[in-house]
Amino acid sequence: MSVTTTCVKRAFKYRFHPTDTQAAELSRTFGCVRKVYNLALAARTEAWARQERVNYNATSAMLTAWKKTGELAFLNDVSSVPLQQTLRHLQTAFTNFFGKRAKYPRFKSRKKSRKSAEYTTSGFRFRDGRLTLAKMSEPLDIVWSRPLPEGSQPSTVTVSQDSAGRWFVSLLCDDPTVKPLPATDGAVGVDVGLDHLLTLSTGEKAANPRHERKDRARLALAQRRLARKAKGDGANRAKARREVARIHARIADRRRDGLHKLTTRLVRENQTIVIEDLTVRNMVKNRSLARAISDAAWSEFRSMLEYKAAWYGREVIAVDRWFPSSKLCSTCGTLQDKMPLNVRTWTCDCGTTHDRDVNAAKNLLAAGLAVSVCGAGVRPQRSTPGGRSATKQKTPRREP
Ligand SMILES: [Zn+2]
Questions:
Q1: How many domains does the chain have?
Q2: pTM of structure
């Protein structure tokens, strides 16, 4: 697969410290974005029930009408750009749903949904390294932890606040420094697990980041503390919730650092990277904490791998998860009847002793390469540069 694009778009994310006025303006904007998204989702859902299609342009016209009503006049108080953008995001969510790549869009909740607002060029000014958003007089106080590429001009700016209360701004810029790498013969299979987040077909295991065991124990403790706080005890409950969010954020940050290093190295060293497709894994309620963290890390790993592969002209192949990667001997091809989860190493009749995860990674690699050559076998999905793979999903559940 060759990549011909000369310039890739890349997001640069920084923390910033808003003034009280800016924080109030942004919180108001997040609220309006959520309101508009939910109103448009409700309108589209009602239309869908009547077998009618409502597109982006129709919701945009609705927004204009909503702003003229007394009840929703407050939507005029914030920049209209993020409101238009959220309607575009809703359009994308529906396109993915109709393309069977995603579930039916859900309503945004005040507590659980990511707080963010996206500004296109008409919604901000970027001059001399100073970023000023629409409806604001002062530029944002950004912590420039790394420089933007020389002379770059952001095309989109996304402001967000995480559940730990931290503010972030992400600037989408052309990055002329990213160029496809020379082709290589390297190929690797990657298996995902709980003890080790990732196991490579080379036998290498990516350990969980240092401190994570301790962080997880702290997180479990903080979650128990939160669960004990009575519903009525507002202030203490909010405090306990912030503590849980803060530990979550720290675990995620450390993980992300490790994943960036690993994905960059995998993409540099290999032409083909075969992974397991976990998109359709049942999301069982009441999952263990370890499982939840590992799932989140896995989807982050996959998306990093896919965009970096697209940048550097590499290929990511996702193999269907029903492929029996753990039960198959990677040396002789014999299929074992059972492979209970607690079995970490096993010896096949052919005499080979396998590490369970390394064996699975080797099988994934072989399956991915087989399909890469002859185009048949294990129903893999190839990812397209810069995009999601065309993953088959179960019929999405209809929501009201
Ligand atoms: Zn064997």
A1: 2
A2: 0.65
